[in-house]
């Protein structure tokens, strides 16, 4: 059963169906069911191979794209940010802390990777990255489009 977007009239907010987020939630629920089947307590996740995708928001202003990615516990030197044309990739790792006995886990640990293609060209020389309170904020200024130039016809 697919969930349809909720539409409201009168200029109110419109809830948007996010298939990627739904898939992530389904993946987490399946992991919890498998953990229960193999005797792990609820909330404890077995280590999964491969990177996971952190929560992120991508927005656009008149002159830039902004990307905010949740990376709690990551230090700036542990981030790898790559911009190849319009493709942005942010990778890193959240290291699990040493603990006596883990009873419940809802936060993800291990390697993560966010990637996406921006809708327009970016001025790579002016990109800024800031890490504050566990949120990586990237400001990617849009490339200046060439303005039309009027050309006079000579005699």
From TrEMBL:
<dbReference type="InterPro" id="IPR008978">
    <property type="entry name" value="HSP20-like_chaperone"/>
</dbReference>
<protein>
    <submittedName>
        <fullName>Hsp20/alpha crystallin family protein</fullName>
    </submittedName>
</protein>
<dbReference type="InterPro" id="IPR031107">
    <property type="entry name" value="Small_HSP"/>
</dbReference>
<dbReference type="InterPro" id="IPR007052">
    <property type="entry name" value="CS_dom"/>
</dbReference>
<comment type="similarity">
    <text>Belongs to the small heat shock protein (HSP20) family.</text>
</comment>
<feature type="domain" description="CS">
    <location>
        <begin position="51"/>
        <end position="155"/>
    </location>
</feature>
<dbReference type="InterPro" id="IPR002068">
    <property type="entry name" value="A-crystallin/Hsp20_dom"/>
</dbReference>
<dbReference type="Pfam" id="PF00011">
    <property type="entry name" value="HSP20"/>
</dbReference>
<feature type="domain" description="SHSP">
    <location>
        <begin position="47"/>
        <end position="155"/>
    </location>
</feature>
């Amino acid at each position: 059963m697919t969930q349809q977007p909720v539409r409201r009239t009168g200029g109110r907010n419109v809830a948007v169906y996010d298939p990627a987020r739904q898939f992530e939630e389904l993946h987490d629920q399946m992991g919890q069911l498998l953990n229960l089947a193999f005797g792990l307590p609820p909330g404890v996740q077995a280590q999964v191979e491969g990177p996971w995708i952190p929560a992120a928001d991508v927005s656009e202003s008149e002159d830039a794209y902004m990307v905010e990615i949740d990376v709690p516990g990551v230090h700036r030197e542990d981030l790898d940010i790559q911009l190849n044309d319009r493709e942005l990739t942010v990778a890193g790792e959240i290291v699990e802390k040493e603990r006596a006995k883990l009873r419940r886990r809802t936060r993800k640990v291990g390697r993560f990777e966010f990637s996406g293609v921006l809708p327009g060209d970016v001025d790579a020389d002016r990109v800024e990255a800031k890490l504050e309170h566990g949120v990586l904020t990237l400001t990617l200024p849009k490339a200046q489009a060439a303005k039309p130039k009027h050309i006079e016809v000579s005699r």
